[in-house]
Amino acid sequence: MARHGRLYVISGPAGVGKSEIVKTVLKNHEDVGLSVSCTTRAPRPGEVDGVSYHFVTDERFDQLVAEGAFYEWANVHQHRYGTLRSAVRDGLEQGRDLILEIDVQGCLQVMRQDPEATSIFVCPPSRENLEKRLRDRGTETEESIRVRLGNVAREVATAYHYDYIIVHYDWSEVPDALQIASEQVYDIISTRRLERQSSIEFLDALNQSLNR
After folding, report:
1. DSSP 8-state class, residue 98
2. Helix residue ranges, H only, the chain
3. What secondary structure letter does DSSP report for 53?
4. Rounded to an integer, what is the distance from CA 37 to the centroid of its chain?
5. What gap in Å lies between CA 73 and CA 145, rounded to an integer?
6. CA-to-CA distance for 47 and 67, rounded, in angstroms?
7. Would you place residue 159 in the very low, low, confident or very high pLDDT band (cuts 50, 70, 90)?
8. Is the pLDDT of residue 42 over 70?
9. Greatest CA separation for the chain
10. Burial of 18 (0-12, 13-18, 19+ CB in 10 A)
11. How confident is the model at residue 15 (pLDDT cuts 50, 70, 90)?
């Protein structure tokens, strides 16, 4: 019997390491897929169009908004990001569990639209650690770092609305912090697959066969 996939929305402050956590989950667990978002920002070094993001112009983003093509979209750090409805629908209908890595604005939109979505918030161990991570990326200007750090308190305040909280520890203090965080994400996915609601169709079919 065909299984319908679940949506897992992961967010947290910029620089907390969400992308690395998601990449590690996908690398180690082929049964989980990624819903690729659209963005109007330029690609960072190593990012691939259609894999990391769908990189689009402001004009194309406006067109997609007008067409109602987005599941959610938001302005984030002077750029826009959005999730295509078609990408989420197609993946879930194929029975794939999908990870959607988005900012907190988008995650709150998803939670309002889809109560079945599972939300995971990734926290830094401290403000100092987050600032260090942003600087170590080498992709941010001083102005960008100030903007991002200025948004952290607002973003962390939203964590109270999430289903699960994961702390991504400092690699210098916890060398396998990335592996720990990625396995915690997959543990959440595995646990949700075992919930009764995920097995209703199987239980119905089994009961029917036993009561013939």
Report:
1. E
2. 18-28, 58-66, 85-93, 104-113, 127-137, 142-157, 177-193, 200-210
3. B
4. 10
5. 22
6. 27
7. very high
8. yes
9. 70
10. buried
11. confident
